[in-house]
Amino acid sequence: MHGINKVAIIGSGQMGGGIAQISAVNGFETVIYDLNSDALTRCEGFHNKLFARGVEKGRMSDDDVAGAKAKLNYANDINAIYDADIVIEAVIEDVDLKKKIFAGIADKFTDNQILATNTSSISITDLATSVGDAADRFIGMHFFNPVPVMKLVEVINGLATSEETTKRTIALSEAMGKVAVPANDRAGFVSNRVLMPMINEAFYAWMEGVAEPEHIDEIMKLGMAHPMGPLRLADFIGLDTCVHIMDVMAEGLNNDRYRACPLLKQLVVAGRLGNKAGRGVFDYSK
Ligand SMILES: NC(=O)c1ccc[n+]([C@@H]2O[C@H](COP(=O)([O-])OP(=O)(O)OC[C@H]3O[C@@H](n4cnc5c(N)ncnc54)[C@H](O)[C@@H]3O)[C@@H](O)[C@H]2O)c1
Questions:
Q1: Among the four 63, 64, 205, 235, which has the fewest Cβ within 10 Å?
Q2: Domain 6-183 - what CATH class?
Q3: Tens digits of per-residue pLDDT, 121-137?
Q4: What is the pLDDT of residues 14-50, one digit of tens each?
Q5: Pairing mode, strands 86-89 and 72-75
Q6: Residue to mutate, 37, 91, 122, 242, ligand 1, most ligand atoms under 8 Å from C-beta
Q7: What is the mean pLDDT of the chain?
Q8: pTM
């Protein structure tokens, strides 16, 4: 069993906010910490909106909402996280920042507490070097976006992760209503190792004039039963994030076949980052 009562999350962005939501809804005492108080306010507003919609659609009762809200705490002070049984880090995908955060908290998490990261591509073994002796309690817990909807948690062991840490993390994921699937610690894990080259190849197909972007997406949707074409999915993920993950895989797997397509990189240079920028492959400004 997981033996977890309290869950702490670092970073109240789209992933951290989603993880906090499912944690509280599934009955865990939950604290979400961010150093940016505006981000915390936005996160709380987002939760309230989702809870209201849950009631409207009949998915949640008023009591469910009150119960979840009572479990959710928004903290601008990092001291609020130290008594949690697990901390799940979900700040931006920056290896140095993540290491700095873990190095700063590791000596407060000594009591059989788990240190988990939601990184989508960075080596778990590498991040674990920042926590010293706690490396056996360090693990990758890779949720998918949007967290309340997507069923998968990819659970990634670092070289030193103990079997007990893995078992507890899998049990916690299941208690949060997810399906936990293990993967080994290679750049991109399984999800991005398979997904990102497909997205990258769609950019090559576009660049080489094999088909127009709409047609590439339509072919993959109708022909492969994908709910979304690879180019629209790239816009949803963020084109900068796609390039970043390809770079991590090219370096980590030491193979140039993971280099990002020049057209994908060019769109990023032009600021066409996808949905979040209003324009990527497709135009979202209207
Ligand atoms: N977005 C996705 O589709 C997705 C999917 C799976 C995994 N991930 C991974 O999840 C992580 C978070 O991604 P996101 O999309 O939620 O990012 P985001 O930019 O939406 O949120 C990041 C949050 O971290 C906060 N933050 C930054 N530095 C901090 C610090 N020192 N202490 C506390 N909080 C800090 C920011 O204020 C912000 O609220 C990344 O590692 C990303 O790779 C993202």
A1: 63
A2: alpha beta
A3: 899 999 999 999 999 99
A4: 899 999 999 999 999 999 999 999 999 999 999 999 9
A5: unpaired
A6: 91
A7: 96
A8: 0.92
